[in-house]
Structures are given as C-alpha cells and as structure tokens.
Amino acid sequence: MSDSPSAAPVVLDLWCELECPDCHRALSDVHALRARYGDRLEVRLRHFPLEKHKHAYAAAQAAEEAVDQGKGWPYIEAVLARTADLARAGEPLLLEVAGELGLDAEEFDTALIDGRHLLIVDADQAEGRAIGVTGTPTYVIGDERLDGGKSQEGLRARIEEIADRLLAGQG
C-alpha cells in the first residue's frame, strides 16, 4: 500500500448503442485499451440509441438493469457480440442473454415494462446530443470527441495518444 494518493483514472466515454454493428467492432479497441491501461483508464458506456435500430432503446434499458444486477460490461459485451441477432429477435434476445449470464431475466422483463431505467438512457442521449454526438460509436476523452461511426481507422491510436498525454499530466 502506498502513502501517496493514486491518480484518478482518465475517463473515456463511449457513446454506444447495442444494436450497432460499428459498436460491435469497437469492442476490440475497448479490450486493447483496457489491456494497455488497466485501471488507469475508466471506460464508461454512454447510451445513444439510434432511431434506425428498433431494439436499441430496450437494449440500453436492459444494459442498465445488468449494471444494477452487477454484470454491466459482461452483458453489454454479450449483446454487442450478437447485434444481428438482436435486430432479428428483439427483446427476447435481451432476456436470453440475461439468463445466459445468470442474471434475473424475470427482473429484466419487469424493468423493460416498468421503464425504471428510462431516465438514465434519456439523460445519456440528451447529453450526447448536447456535445455533438450524432452517431455511434463516438468516443470522448479529455476534451476531444472522436467519431467512430464513419471510420474507426486510427481511432485507438488517437485515444492512446490523448490518454498518454492526460496520464503524463497527472504526475
């Protein structure tokens, strides 16, 4: 244990929607960033369901229920791995994934019906719009917004460059 306080992690907000194939592809970058930075980089999923994806709004609510049940990222990654299935199957897939992860699928169903997570999803979406998010995935690190919806080419390197600069500034 150290007597010096540990520096706060750099925050990377990932504006995402769980029916988006580009967000599915962005997962490999998230994994690589986590491997490189560990707990020095906090990746936060921010919801930005797009109207063109019929089940994205329900998926965002389900992800929040998974957070409440203690398996937010495992659930998010499992749903993102099946974006095409979600487009076809809809809400039953969200409940199926919950069951596969040992979560309370009945509680997921209830959460989707009673809308207990609507405010979180709506707040994320409103904040995203306010800062200029128009598509997914969009990354915000430091004061920079990087749009991965058009192309993810070079984005991870750019995120690493910004994270390295921010982390160096803490010391």
Describe the protein.
- This protein is α+β, with helices and mostly antiparallel strands and 171 residues long.
- The protein contains eight helices and four strands; from the N terminus they run E-H-E-H-H-H-H-H-H-E-E-H.
- It has helices at residues 21-37, 56-68, 72-80, 83-89, 91-100, 105-114, 118-130, 155-170, and strands at residues 10-16, 41-47, 138-141, 144-147.
- A four-stranded mixed beta sheet has the order 2-1-3-4.
- Helix 2 runs antiparallel to helix 3 and helix 2 crosses helix 6.
- It is globular, with a radius of gyration of 16 Å.
- The two termini are 18 Å apart.
- 36% of the residues are buried.
- The model is unreliable at 1-5 (pLDDT under 50).
List descriptors.
disordered N terminus; alpha+beta; globular; 171 residues
Q: What does this entry show, briefly?
A:
By secondary structure, the chain is of the alpha+beta class.
Reconstruct the topology from this structure.
Blueprint: E1 10-16, H1 21-37, E2 41-47, H2 56-68, H3 72-80, H4 83-89, H5 91-100, H6 105-114, H7 118-130, E3 138-141, E4 144-147, H8 155-170
Parallel strand pairs: 1-2
Antiparallel strand pairs: 1-3, 3-4
How would you sum up the global shape? globular
Main sheet record:
4 strands, mixed
Backbone CA Rg: 16 Å
Strand content: 5-15%
Spatial strand arrangement across the major sheet: 2-1-3-4
Low-pLDDT stretches = 1-5
